Amino acid sequence: MFEHFNTPEELFSYKLGSALTMERDSLEMLETLETTTPRVRLKELFNTHAAETRHQIENLERCFALLGEEINDFPSPTTKGLAKEGKASIAKTEPSIVDAVLLAGGLETERYEMAVYETLMINAKARGADEVLVLLKQNYDQEVAASEKLLKAAEMISSEGIAREIPPR
Ligand SMILES: [Fe+2]
Fold first, then answer.
1. 151 C-alpha to center of ligand 1: Å?
2. Which class is domain 8-160?
3. Which of 46, 56, 96, 135 lies 20 to 30 A from 120 at CA?
4. Contact present, 105 and 113 (Cβ < 8 Å)
């Protein structure tokens, strides 16, 4: 753990490790979203992005290797907070309307991830880490696409009337 950042490289390593933790947190969150939603289409959406997220984790691990550094997983309090808020909201929400909560949590997480990658890409470019930049861009593009799908899904269920009939158990 860095006590104090003295160089741009140290800052970059820290943010890269924090992004790795972010993706691991997101993967856990996506699995929760997939098991919680009553809509098959949303299950597929969350499942697809969970598979992408597993690949993103591998990409981030490869970034460390390309930089000749050991893999670090530095703290990511923002994604921990988003997951905590999401789980608390799910617990307080009727299953018939829970998708609105799931999509909001998913969208907020994706938008945060986009911002993290935007900064990482700027810094990778600045230090001439071209191969790292390519991997970060792959992750970023997937976050943008996932974000768009979540936004469209939120619009779809809101136009359908949010509530979903839940069959009795
Ligand atoms: Fe994501």
1. 13
2. mainly alpha
3. 46
4. no
Q: How confident is the model at residue 1 (pLDDT cuts 50, 70, 90)?
A: low
| Ligand 1 centroid from CA 169, angstroms | 32
Q: How far is the CA of 117 from the centre of ligand 1 (A)?
A: 11
CA dihedral 33, 35, 38, 42 (to 10 degrees): 50
Domain positions in the chain are 8-160
Query: What is the mean pLDDT of the segment spanning 10-26?
Result: 96
Read off the pTM: 0.93
For ligand 1, the distance from its centroid to the CA atom of residue 46, given in whole angstroms, is: 10
Residue keyed to tokens 């289409």? 41
Interval between CA 42 and ligand 1 midpoint (Å) = 15
